[in-house]
Amino acid sequence: MALSMHMPAAGCEHMNNDAISRIRKFRSKHNHEDLVQYTCLECPAAGGFPTLDQHFSDSQHEFAVSQKSVYCGRCNDLVYDPTLLSNSKKRKLTEANDEDDSYLTANTSQRPCGRSGVRGLFNLGETCYMNAVLQMMVHNTLLASYFLGMGHPTHTCPISKEPDKKNNDSDSEDEDEEKKEQQTCVACGMTEVFSDVTMVDQPLPAHAVNLLFASWKNIPQMSGKGQQDAQEWFMCIIDRLHEAVAHYKTPEKTNSANAANGIPAIEKQCVCFFHKVFYGRYNSQITCDTCHTVSSREDEFSSISLDFKKQVKKKKKAAKDAANAAAGEGKEKDKEPLKIAIPSLHECLRSFTAPEPLSPEQYNCQECNDRRSASKQTRIRKLPAILCVHVKRFGMKQLGTGVYVPEKYEGRLDFNLHLDMAPYTTRPPTNGEDKEKYMYDLDCVVVHQGEHAQNGHYFAFCRQDTKWFRFDDEIVSATTTEDVMRQEAYLLFYSLRSLDKM
């Protein structure tokens, strides 16, 4: 950070020619943070001595200020600037008269601390998949609180602090500095995006160069120029965010409950911020049709993938059956085009959590010691704070020549502004129980336009308070709730309404 008073000179050469050291304040090995509080001029770090000494050593920052003094980290001393001092003496507070009050009232406008508007993101070369997901994250209040509240302290991050160790001996100082600027930590890159988009009062779009570079370094299968799948990038990026801050412990309470339900114990479970926010847990039970033995297992998930094509086929079949029934009643002359109903999100979720048959080829019963037919049911045991619903629209179809080509399943899905997930959990609420802990509110809709996953374009609709905006890379426009609900959703992001109920 460049400072106007940073000029080589005698004394504190980091200020200006006339800068001299003030009489040193009392300092010792004891912590006197309660006496004087200083704030770093280059980041939000604050405190007294020796906290700031350690901060300057770690971050290479130089100046901190209090109400009456400036501390230079390179001089290890309190310093002052005569010019600033003389200016402060000249400025006297006087009581405003009526004429001053009128002028101030007419020429003053309130300016909020931080930016309250919305900002687009530059497309860096087929990076619309990333931009759409990033807009969802930037406009989520829970994630904004984390990244803007020093949830990941970038100046002490062990990943980005050290340059790439490959060929480190041959690197010049300039190359070292360039590597530091191009962060390889996805959490540092994400923090920068949040800061740029939400805290910088700029009409121009922001960019996510460092985050893109970090994701290429940490997600090799999605590196390089080219269209990627937005859902796949979302799952990969939250995995890398989790890895950057992962903290594990043995969940004793969870294991006690698992033991009572015949579920194997979990050795370790991550309790980091991203795990709590994005990851839920499935419970899958398989019941043998012969001995009725029930076997259970639990798996983590970061998104729920729903079979949209299956629901479309059901709707088409129902429409054809209705048309055939009408034809059988002699209504051929009134024959009209098939009216195919729109599948709903709840229908897809019910299908996802409904029991499904397993053939003997698919299941080997340990109790019977033989292959048996069985039924499998998957329900949700733990709901995440941010729920990602993936509407599966991409697949493969076989041509007459036997060659498989990619295809996309078009059509609308009737989704909800407010989603009750209670019916799809292992323990739905009983009468009188608080249902708020199962309620979600829609935050973002990601849409894909194009023929298949390898081409096309992604854009997002995000909610800010009660208003909806369309984010198409750098282009941002206001829209309506009705327009959002008409979209052919690919990804739906919901936020848990009551976090204290988790």
UniProtKB/TrEMBL annotation:
Residues 157-182 are annotated as: Disordered. One of its GO terms (biological process) is proteolysis. Its EC number is 3.4.19.12. It is an enzyme of class 3 (hydrolase). It comes from the Eukaryota. Pfam families: UCH. One of its GO terms (molecular function) is cysteine-type deubiquitinase activity. GO terms for cellular component: nucleus. Residues 119-497 form the USP domain. PANTHER family: UBIQUITIN CARBOXYL-TERMINAL HYDROLASE (PTHR21646), UBIQUITIN CARBOXYL-TERMINAL HYDROLASE 22 (PTHR21646:SF33). This is ubiquitinyl hydrolase 1.
